[in-house]
Design goal:
By secondary structure, the protein is mainly alpha-helical. It is built from 2 helices and 2 strands. Helix 1 packs antiparallel against helix 2.
């Protein structure tokens, strides 16, 4: 039987990619909710609702992206 080893370079790269993209997505989601509420003078409560709604969309996009990345990248190699 072949020994299966973790490819640490790929694992670190995927984790780093996930952190970077998650910060960007959630930053855009929060800033968009705040900006739209301020632009249209919708109030604080609607601004928070928009931020939450956009954050849910960003979370869904992040989960989808990470699923696709994990399908493509080989985390465990045979040696």
């Amino acid at each position: 039987m072949a020994v299966r080893r973790t490819n640490w370079r790929t694992l670190i790269m995927v984790i780093s990619l996930g952190i970077l993209i998650a910060v960007e997505l959630f930053g855009v989601a929060l800033a968009s909710g705040w900006a739209l509420a301020g632009l249209f003078d919708l109030g604080h409560v609607v601004g928070y609702v928009l931020m939450a709604l956009f954050s849910v969309v960003a979370g869904y996009a992040m989960v989808n992206l990470m699923r696709r990345v994990l399908k493509v990248e080989h985390m465990i190699g045979d040696n």
